[in-house]
Amino acid sequence: MPPAHPFDDDKLKEECGVFGTVGVSDAASIVALGLHALQHRGQEAGGIVTHDPEQGFNSARRFGLVRDNFTSEKLLNTLPGPIGIGHVRYSTAGSKGGTQIRDVQPFFGEFAMGGAAIAHNGNITNALQLRKELIERGSIFQSSSDSECIIHLMARSMGRNIPDRMEEALRKVEGAFSVVAMTRTKLIGCRDPLGVRPLVLGKLGDGWVLASETCALDIIGAEFLREIEPGEMVVISAEHGIQSHYPFRPAKSRFCIFEHVYFSRPDSILGGQSVYSTRENIGRELAKESPVDADLVCPVPDSGTPAAIGYSLESGIPYAMGIIRNQYMGRTFIEPTEQIRNMGVRLKLNVNRALIRGKRVILVDDSVVRGTTSRKIKDMILDAGAAEVHFRIASPPTAWPCFYGVDTPQREKLLAATMSEDEMCEHLGVNSLKFITLDGLYRAVGEARGRDASCPQYCDACFSGEYPVEPADMLEQGFRMKAAE
Amino acid sequence: MPPAHPFDDDKLKEECGVFGTVGVSDAASIVALGLHALQHRGQEAGGIVTHDPEQGFNSARRFGLVRDNFTSEKLLNTLPGPIGIGHVRYSTAGSKGGTQIRDVQPFFGEFAMGGAAIAHNGNITNALQLRKELIERGSIFQSSSDSECIIHLMARSMGRNIPDRMEEALRKVEGAFSVVAMTRTKLIGCRDPLGVRPLVLGKLGDGWVLASETCALDIIGAEFLREIEPGEMVVISAEHGIQSHYPFRPAKSRFCIFEHVYFSRPDSILGGQSVYSTRENIGRELAKESPVDADLVCPVPDSGTPAAIGYSLESGIPYAMGIIRNQYMGRTFIEPTEQIRNMGVRLKLNVNRALIRGKRVILVDDSVVRGTTSRKIKDMILDAGAAEVHFRIASPPTAWPCFYGVDTPQREKLLAATMSEDEMCEHLGVNSLKFITLDGLYRAVGEARGRDASCPQYCDACFSGEYPVEPADMLEQGFRMKAAE
Amino acid sequence: MPPAHPFDDDKLKEECGVFGTVGVSDAASIVALGLHALQHRGQEAGGIVTHDPEQGFNSARRFGLVRDNFTSEKLLNTLPGPIGIGHVRYSTAGSKGGTQIRDVQPFFGEFAMGGAAIAHNGNITNALQLRKELIERGSIFQSSSDSECIIHLMARSMGRNIPDRMEEALRKVEGAFSVVAMTRTKLIGCRDPLGVRPLVLGKLGDGWVLASETCALDIIGAEFLREIEPGEMVVISAEHGIQSHYPFRPAKSRFCIFEHVYFSRPDSILGGQSVYSTRENIGRELAKESPVDADLVCPVPDSGTPAAIGYSLESGIPYAMGIIRNQYMGRTFIEPTEQIRNMGVRLKLNVNRALIRGKRVILVDDSVVRGTTSRKIKDMILDAGAAEVHFRIASPPTAWPCFYGVDTPQREKLLAATMSEDEMCEHLGVNSLKFITLDGLYRAVGEARGRDASCPQYCDACFSGEYPVEPADMLEQGFRMKAAE
Amino acid sequence: MPPAHPFDDDKLKEECGVFGTVGVSDAASIVALGLHALQHRGQEAGGIVTHDPEQGFNSARRFGLVRDNFTSEKLLNTLPGPIGIGHVRYSTAGSKGGTQIRDVQPFFGEFAMGGAAIAHNGNITNALQLRKELIERGSIFQSSSDSECIIHLMARSMGRNIPDRMEEALRKVEGAFSVVAMTRTKLIGCRDPLGVRPLVLGKLGDGWVLASETCALDIIGAEFLREIEPGEMVVISAEHGIQSHYPFRPAKSRFCIFEHVYFSRPDSILGGQSVYSTRENIGRELAKESPVDADLVCPVPDSGTPAAIGYSLESGIPYAMGIIRNQYMGRTFIEPTEQIRNMGVRLKLNVNRALIRGKRVILVDDSVVRGTTSRKIKDMILDAGAAEVHFRIASPPTAWPCFYGVDTPQREKLLAATMSEDEMCEHLGVNSLKFITLDGLYRAVGEARGRDASCPQYCDACFSGEYPVEPADMLEQGFRMKAAE
Q1: How far is CA C238 from CA C29, C160, C203, C214, in A?
Q2: How far apart are the two ends of chain A, measured CA to CA in Å?
Q3: B168 Cβ partners below 8 Å, 6+ apart?
Q4: From the CA of B347, how many Å to the nearest CA of chain A?
Q5: Once rounded to an integer, what is the mean pLDDT over residues C239-265?
Q6: Using 50, 70 and 90 to split pLDDT, how confident is the model at B337?
Q7: The CATH homologous superfamily of the domain defined by B13-254
Q8: Which positions are catalytic residues (chains A, B, C, D) (predicted)?
Q9: What is the CA radius of gyration of chain C?
């Protein structure tokens, strides 16, 4: 079960991936494949709900990977029908004592006019307030998930049909949400007004597909039609095709720029551009902004790879795999002995000693969170005899937590929240350390004039501290915004 | 359980990795780590044997990966002691109906002077003859493995001690063997006279380590001392250190050249050189031998990567990740439905469509076995809109089966056994297809003057059909050597 | 997993057992032991909820037996605290497609004033109507269980504290219920006004215990204080001890008489009398009512044993174990081959051939439901060479389904619903067949003057068709009461 | 996994049951059923070997119960063919650190003329000597089982066919053995010259069956033909039917008398008599030898039941179930907390308090081994308010260990080895304690004149210390025979 990055515990984690399909012959298999392609967005657990005219709604929710849980014919046969949705999750909002199976989406609710299931990517920033109010009115929550609010708001809505109820519910929630939902016959997709999280629409034979990323269309050979727009809700049925609504007050789009840097898969297309190419551009920008004389450009595998290639192409310094990742590493080294635990790093990565010895090495990584991993990697490279180590980071300093669906440490734990770039360089003990600038990053994603400070084109709160939606629950819990510091 | 290559079923498979240690405080953990680093040499099953003065010999043998079986404190506590050996296996010689747990090494035997365990990498080419003779004399075989012969030959030896018995036994077996064995106090390592399979010696604190590759020394922080020489047997004990013997008739070394091309890990050191660098050299040689005008050089992930980097560096054509591998793929998609099975390729690989469209693409792969995978990859690239596809292969055409410990298809199934390079190019439907020449490969591994046809420096039987040891059992079963064709 | 009777599929099945404790040092272990003693009341699944001042509410729900799920230190450590409740269940009301884990009790709800958990033994006869109304008002049901209504009614109550809310909720439900519930500090027990299902109160050190039967007090060495009275609600806390309420309109008690015949364990005490002795009395009454000249009295193991002993003592005919039960039979013969399936009976029972041959045998069984088992047993006995077979049944003919918490077949499937005693005798092919009379049964349970037809002392609807509570949901689904026939 | 007796740890344990069949359509299912019926003879593990003309030999060996391992269609399909044997085991001779799967029978060996499998009930008293000699000659043992000697002796035999080799092997082993073996076409059964362990022959359609007890014939509807005679070897094939040999020097039969008392199932037939009836006779003899004035005769469930019935019938004192066994108890309470462990007895047994209070109770048990259980039961009965407790034991004092296939504690641990009957009575703290006499036991099994002291009709070494076969290995390890004391 290889994580996207060998130092899992020092990375920001995308919380979720969502997928849905309607009008196909065997929805469950399609959903399973889609979720497999979205596995990088959440490895902790997954779930699928389908509906069949004869057998009604069926669901399966499991801890672990899609490939381990949702591929057997036996299981898929318990999920019949031409319509289905699915969800993979990492934990964000959830119970303190670890996720329980009841926290695993999709969530299902039976209403007077029939059942509905929803899967949510993002985070509802006023969930605690909503939860409190709903409990006072007699709702019983089954999970500790913020997303469960939506289904309770739908249950209490006076709307005559489920899409109406969903509109009403979503108008009450704040924050980031890309939602895929289903009734007996309708597949529904909706993005919040700022469009913080991605959601795309595809065509598969006579049917349709909604997915967090285009890579989930590719796996099933679906055609990529377009992105769902910020603030748009689509209702899709085999009978009536696609109907589009805009239930929210219009707002300027603020897509999460970190999706470009790290979360999305390199073979996905975001804003019309290959994510891989964007990351290569980031590397090129980095090389322009922060050149250094060296012998080799090496990625920190695997997520630093495209930026390292870009850095090499721009700088002319040869690209090489100085660090080799053990392909058989996985989450399942769960009960290591003390002895093994203390050898942590070597289990996952090894330095190509014969290659590195005596060389001046540029290491390209996607981000620095706590900095613990960067130190270990620097140690490995120096132990192997490198002459110099230069870190180049494909994102600006991560100094603020995300409240829109990404699992970030508390602010104090973020290295960049307490240190300048120079201090970090000294702290890590490397010859140089350079982050790409915010403007450089905006150029790399295609904004030729860089960031529009008066009205940023993206959500970049984790770098800038400028939160496009006020995090109501967090403020109540004492979080201090930038202006308040 | 990610295989080293996404198209597992169209690759040659190394059969085994071996590891042993003596003079350490907790041998089992050390062995588990070593086997984890050697996992690419065998993913089907693994086993560990240790000895403790008070608790005697203990063993654990399991199907599946090291990380899933040999990492819990509970299990490792059942394997106490300062000496131990281990084995990971793919299947080569084995039972028809699939490997059984009794086929999993190390094998153990209790002799009059005490117990011994052995782990074997390679293949015994006269195993069937030996087995028949041993059964007639009253030996009872527990497995279908060729390696079990060794322990029965040792049991029947008149030798006074176990190393003597092992020498006597190994003098009777033919073929390729790198063996790691243990008694209550001694760790034994031995390579066949030709040294077909690798075996290295390391130092860990006050103790010693034997391993198939140096990457298994790195994971535990052991120092690489030297390779065990072809035909050498070392007997190591905490008390007497290392003693070296040469029990066999001297012969010229014939190390397996495919270890350089594919089997060994890129961060291992073979013959004093980084495997990664050798593979980069192969790419450079390929670029010199078979240049072509193109826009991008893309590896077939992951094994084609170093050669693709070399090709790019030599040719100046930009390197890019045109094919993205799903990190969450594994062996455990075991019961896919018909629908999923038919979508095979997309589960594992996806093309970076936005990058590839309209480009002339050079694809670098390590080898072509049956050719089934190469066709699928070509289809994917063309579907994504590539203008041209040029295959460059980092090994010569694989036209002969290996009988020395590698799982190869029957000769008829090897594409290169029945087609010329041009025929293969047409069969695969690509714009060009070029293999590295045998001489080019020899240059890349450091033989400046190429292959010495009168007395090749390596075993290259899979390319040349020149077998350095006559495969006795196979000949009896009707295999026809090159001279006989 | 030995069922209480070897022909599980031809027995009425008690649906549930409930247990709770407060004021003890380790509630979870106590609850686990109590549930183990009540396992005969439900083998399909079980659950435990506890509360700890520091760690809040915790729960575990599992399919399978208590001994297999709730005995490990690891699990019990996840359920800390001095108060807890538990539930074992067979299925009665539940989802069509088999019970799901979300159907397993206790159910938990978080209210404005804190959480509560409930466990229910019985059946709510107006559950479907209540469910429909609650859904219309926005409640989301998580299970298909009738018992979930109670927690939703509590959530919507305006009551200031949880016991008040529970009173309000229980006043709205109809049918049979013995409920054990808990808040953070209070253990609550309540029986419906007719007291159809049992519930007893015990003292354990400084703490208290509620349980379905006294055998669950014995296992933990608790002292049996008294039965909870029909219509009584007790609220017990470590601080305030026991407080007793009577929230319902008073009614005459109608305890389930089948608890005496079959459901309760023979070592439990019901109405001041050992269940074992009551069953022995039933056997004695049977011998008086329906004597027959024979050589041996044999029980159908194991549930017929006490009545057979009573029959033997009264008649003077020797008691013998003519049928031997395989102790290793269990539910887990789940996937037998066709060949094994067809040998069904012999897997579980074997006749003591040498003993039976040529004898006139009286077989004592507790009840006849479909009659399928009785036929098989008769065949076995005759195959073994018995001269005569006489069935004596320790209950009157079961002719009506139970709607108060017992899993009975539809009326048409009950042998006694369509045949007279003589017709059944002929159908079964035995020399004689006699059921105890209703009056005889009442005498055996201690009503010296038999049944009071104007106002029966027990619920005997399964024999008489006189239902003490109108089964509202069933009537709506078309069930016809006796008067309507 | 309910043991035959609730205090497993204070009982003698039969070590094994064996079963074989030939000439049937699906041997594996037949063997599985037979082993299920013999489960009381060994619950730790089981194994089945079959042979099919096309698919050769196949085997499956598993820890746990037959019902949990050998009932799925999937597994049974891996064991095709018309001939098969099986084995269930408790541990006797075996590895110190717990049984390993390699110790589980049947054992298989491949000889020059083909394969053979054997299953052994009993114990080889010179196994250690044989093992030492075989190892010196080059045999490699795979298990720590005494039974493996047989297959190695067969491998080294010069016999031309397998039955000849088996004869030669069995002539070299000493002790008790009932062996079932198979070749590709022949089913072989053999009992040692004294016939210590049982073995019976049955007919099933056109095929034959060998089994430890007749209850294993009943479960499949096979006809009981006869017992295999002491010293007889039968070779059975579909083609040639049954051939009988007597390879050993003739000796007087010494069948294990404890099979009558406890090991065999009550519905089996031994020596022409129902075991149940024999045990009832033992109870009658006890009542004659040791009458006492009392109110109730209660069995210690379940094994004391037939003798208690006999005692009641002879004495006229009413029989009652004063102690109730929890049907859901099993081996799987494996990880109990300290708290649960300390409540040991109540988990398994409960006293029928309302029945026992104030009564003088006779408790009938089958044997006293260490006496630990008897004390606990006495405590339970007195706690429940019994006026008097009288123990009556259905076997003589167990004062000597068994070396013929029964797991007994060391001599010092046997209560009767160090105390007289009166001392034991005082030690247990009961009003009286009486064992049946040896002569009484012999009368109960049908020897009207009791035991022939000059030449006992049975093996009763555990009572008398008179061992019919000298226990060679044990003597070498220092065991002192009675004469030597």
Answers
A1: 18, 21, 12, 22
A2: 42
A3: B153, B154, B157, B158, B159
A4: 6
A5: 95
A6: low
A7: Aminohydrolase, N-terminal nucleophile (Ntn) domain (3.60.20.10)
A8: 16 (nucleophile)
A9: 23
| Percent helix, percent strand, percent coil in chain C, to nearest 5 | 30, 25, 45
**Side chain identity, residue C69:** N
Each residue's pLDDT tens digit, A394-409: 999 999 999 999 888 8
Peptide bond into B2 cis (omega under 30): no
Q: Which two tokens stand for residue C4?
A: 């209480």
* Cβ–Cβ under 8 Å, residues D391 and D376: no
CA separation for the pair A126, A146 (Å, rounded): 9
Complex-level ipTM: 0.90
d(CA C239, CA C243): 11
pLDDT over threshold 50, residue B392: yes
Q: How far apart are the first and last CA of chain B?
A: 41
Are B364 and B296 contacting, i.e. CB atoms less than 8 angstroms apart? no
Question: Could you tell me which residues of chain C have a Cβ less than 8 Å from any Cβ in chain A?
Answer: 55, 58, 97, 101-102, 109-112, 135-142, 151-152, 155-157
CA torsion, ordered C443, C447, C449, C453, to nearest 10 deg: -100
Nearest Cα to Cα of residue D211 among D379, D32, D365, D373: D32
CA within 13 Å, CB half, B123: 26
Q: Give the rounded distance of the alpha carbon of A377 from its chain centre.
A: 24
Output the six-digit token pair for A28.
């469950």
Q: What is the mean pLDDT of chain C?
A: 91
* D162-172 vs D148-156: helix crossing angle, rounded to 10: 120
Active site residues of D: 16
- The strand ranges marked E within C6-81 are 13-14, 16-22, 45-52, 56-63
Instruction: Report the alpha-carbon distance of residue D26 to residue D84 in Å, rounded.
Output: 9
Residue of C127, C175, C129, C133 whose CA lies nearest to C150? C127
B295: its two tokens: 């826009």
Residue A117's SS3 state is strand
**Structure tokens, B220:** 């535990």
CA A227 to chain centre: 16
**Alpha-helical segments (H) within D384-469:** 415-418, 421-428, 438-444, 461-464
D384 HSE (CA, 13 A, CB side): 28
**Residue for token digits 């196979």?**
B474
Residues of chain B positioned with their CB less than 8 A from the CB of A328: 1-2, 36, 39-40, 43, 65-67
B136, B139, B141 ranked by CB distance to D138: nearest: B139
Q: Architecture of B273-450 per CATH?
A: 3-Layer(aba) Sandwich (3.40)
What's the gap in Å between the CA of B155 and the closest CA on chain D?
4
Domain boundaries, chain B: 13-254, 273-450
Per-residue pLDDT, B9: 56
Its pTM stands at 0.88
**Which sequence positions of A are flagged as catalytic?**
16
Cβ-based contacts under 8 A for chains A and C: 49
Query: D261: which residues sit within 8 A by CB, 6+ positions away?
Result: D279, D282, D366, D367, D394, D395, D441
Pairing between β-strand C175-182 and β-strand C114-124 as defined by DSSP bridges: antiparallel
Rounded Cα–Cα distance for residues B208 and B199 (Å): 13
> What pLDDT band is residue C4 in, cutting at 50, 70 and 90?
very low
Binding residues of C for Mg(2+): 303, 365-366
Chain D residues touching C1 at Cβ < 8 A: 328, 330
C-beta neighbour count of B53 within 10 angstroms: 11
Quote the CA–CA distance of D227 and D247 in Å, as a whole number.
17
Q: Are C83 and C53 in contact (CB under 8 A)?
A: no
* Max Cα-Cα span within chain C: 72
Calpha distance D52→D259 (Å, rounded): 35
Measured between beta carbons, the chain A residues lying within 8 angstroms of B340 are: 29, 32-33, 71
| Amino acid at residue number C227 | E
Do C320 and C355 contact (CB within 8 A), yes or no?
yes
